[in-house]
Amino acid sequence: MNNSHFNSLIHAPNRLHICAMLSTSAEIEFKLLRESLDVSDSVLSKHIKSLEEAGYIAPAKRTDFGRQRTWLSLTPIGLEAYNDHVKELKRIVG
Amino acid sequence: MTNEKQVTTAEAQSALESLNKIGNETISSLRPPLWLIIIMSLLCGIFTFSMAAAEHENMWALGIWLSGISILLLVLFCRYSERLLGVKGKLLPSSGSGKVFVGLQVLFFALVMTMGREATLLGRPETRIEGAFPIADLPLAPYIAAVIVSLSVAYLTYKYPTNEWVKEDASK
Questions:
Q1: Is the ipTM of this complex over 0.90?
Q2: Per-residue model confidence as pLDDT tens digits over A6-21
Q3: A71 touching B, CB under 8 A?
Q4: Using the beta-carbon criterion (under 8 Å), do A17 and B30 form an inter-chain contact?
Q5: Which residues of B touch A24 (CB under 8 A)?
């Protein structure tokens, strides 16, 4: 049975980058993602918002040493969607 | 050649190569510094040696405690420094292959430590069983076990810091 599924929401370059980074770790801070993607806060927020609305990303605001930090993680649905998308890309490549 | 979503093979190939690169970069960012890997592997070697050479209340029994506590503190230090840098690694890998990989590692280290301990016990005059096991005549058993564990820990921590089994090229 082929479970792969092309996901146009994830396939956009920056969103694919976000999902790829989040899939390898439990949580990544907003600031680190922004530096890695080399985009502005607003651009990254927009991508995160669309992934969050789809239920793929769960942001969490926490205070460490008196400084508020936003941590992002992939939800189980997001991880499944990302893995399915990667499978589909591999299927296309053949 | 395009599929129903109008993604060409070249585009898919390029996306996979990019994903592989990003994955490797993120995993590399979770890799502890080399000096920490060396200290960690040496401590694991000392722990294994102490396990094999410990007798009732001899100094190697203390070695088990000291090296064990030191390893735990180093792991906590690594987790804390990752958190400061803005990345939190997973405690267990999410993929099936990663979980199998961790299971095999646990089995391997348990086997080497048990073999090292048993071979050392069989080699002692008071517990020796003549001809029971050829390795019983090997006085270097704790050293060999310690070197195997130490080198394995160094290699695995350097190559697979997140315990995920990573292919060199995801597009293949």
A1: no
A2: 888 888 889 999 999 8
A3: yes
A4: no
A5: 23, 26-27, 30, 162, 164
Residue B138: predicted pLDDT: 63
User: Is the minimum CB–CB distance between A25 and chain B shorter than 8 Å?
Assistant: yes
> What is the per-residue pLDDT for B88?
87
Percentage of chain A lying above the pLDDT 90 cut: 49
* Tens-place pLDDT, residues B62-82: 889 999 999 999 999 998 888
C-beta atoms of B90 and A25 within 8 A: yes
Which residue of chain B comes nearest to A15, CA vs CA? B19
Question: Is any Cβ of chain A less than 8 angstroms from the Cβ of B14?
Answer: no
CATH number for region A8-87: 1.10.10.10
Coil vs helix vs strand at A35: helix
Domain ranges in chain A are 8-87
* Token pair recorded at residue A57: 């990303």
